[in-house]
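Quick look at the format.
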Amino acid sequence: MNKQNDIGARLERLPMTRWHYTLFWLLGFGLLIDGFDNYIGGIVLAQLEETGWTNNYLSAAFSSSTLIGLFIGSLLAGFMGDYFGRRSAFQINLLLFGIASIAAAFSTNMIMLIILRGIIGIGLGAEIVICFATFTEFLPQKHRGKWVARLSLIGNTAPPIATAVGFIVMPLLGSEYGWRSLFMIAGVAAIALWFARKTLPESPRWLASRGRYEEADAILKEVEKQVEKKNGMKLESIKHEEVLEHTEDAKLRFASLFKGSLLKRTILGICVLIGMNISLYTVTTWIPIIFVQSGIAISDSILMTTIILLGAPLGVLLASIIIDKFPRKWFGVSLLVIIATLACVYAMQTTELMIVTVGFFLILFLYVYVCFASAVYVPELWPTEARTRGTGFCTAIGRAVAISTPFGVAWILTNFGSFAVFATIGTILVLVAVVLAFIGIETRGKSLEEIGELEGGKELLAENDKKDIYV
């Protein structure tokens, strides 16, 4: 019986326990703080504009530094998570994020704030990648999609919380200390969570992938003891047929993501996340601008945008309820086609009622897809040995495309109008749906060990196991 897959099989037979719930909340609060700091950027810039600290160019540099930090953080998180361990990676990045946020509260000029915002972005980008990949590895397959989606739901409650806190705190403390207090709140919360997370265990699957079976076994024995004590009965023994054959102590190099069966997964993950980022950032950023350019009063535009964006948390909530009820691959294809269709229908509406109604459902289904793509499907695609590097690389490429997307949208909107913008989004999403339909792999109902072995994964692991390089 292979030790690595024995660890996986023991995790698969566990019911949801207090251990899982503790992980859920500690990781979830990390995503909440992460989202809070990410979404305060706009209201911070608004107050800094009022005080004369910034102008359009400095504000653009502030926003760009955040995106560049997110890009770097996604890449670094992948290497750190696979090399140093999941727990070490998210603790290091959470500490970086917390210290940089507190430092940002004491910025003496806009250049200093822009630099610190880039460092904050590195921590933000890493936290998202590591949290979803880590939680995925702790969960049995029958609960994986639902509970990872719920983790995403916590993170997506951040926008209204950030706005509400800013609405209360910034006028109360004034233009000098209001925006500083938001960075201080985020930083102190991150440091407090860093201390709370020190009790979190390392991923047993990652420990086993590195040959540290005794440590993985010790963690699982403690959890199994708790389960047996609570239920008053012993857990069933692992059957030999439940444990897949696997090359022990296999080591996947980063270069392995670009050849063989993993190359197809890399292409798949990039396409799925490019579709998400292009549609997400275009729709949420440009909806209010298009409203104003269409002659809708700015006050009405803000109200309509607020109503439409209520679909975001509801979409993630819906995803957490239904995501395990459908095959992952075809669930993703269906969502892409629905979003593409709604985008085109939305662009043809002329009355405010229909704009809000269709826009609400567009955002709702878009956020179901966001949850599916970034929280559930892409982290599932990889063998444990390469999970955070694969997820981090695909996330980084998706974000790189998001950085350049606004310039393309601006050109299309200027030369061809709003319908052409949404028609272009729809076309891209249909192309992603075709890619997913042809090269997508099915992950629902499979353990992470089974997914790792799909389509030649075992042979690739065996090939890399002959080499002593792990980068």
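Next, a different chain entirely:
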Amino acid sequence: MLLHKLEAELGVYAPHFDFGTSKAYQAKILAVRSRQAALVKGKQAVVGAKQWLVEGSAAKGATIIDRQIRLTLRAFNNECEAAIANACWNNVNAMEKRSETRPARSTR
């Protein structure tokens, strides 16, 4: 812990988390993943239209919405994986901000 404080004072490292043990860190990761799974299962992970008629059919609209939700989640997960893979000590804050930023809405 002393090393982290020294590194933070030198501007080399700024800790994001304050876990006493790796078990506590692991427990937090599992809790976050569980919450993510619950949001996906409850269809609350993606914000968008809940009902849409396609050729007058609500069932066809629901199918397209479900596909779009899965595609959106897959794209977001891939972006996060790419950010994690490219994260270095000097760009970790930019990568974190990038994953939290909402894309601009289309004006079409």
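The helical segments are 2-9, 22-41, 58-86, 92-100.

See the schema section for token definitions.
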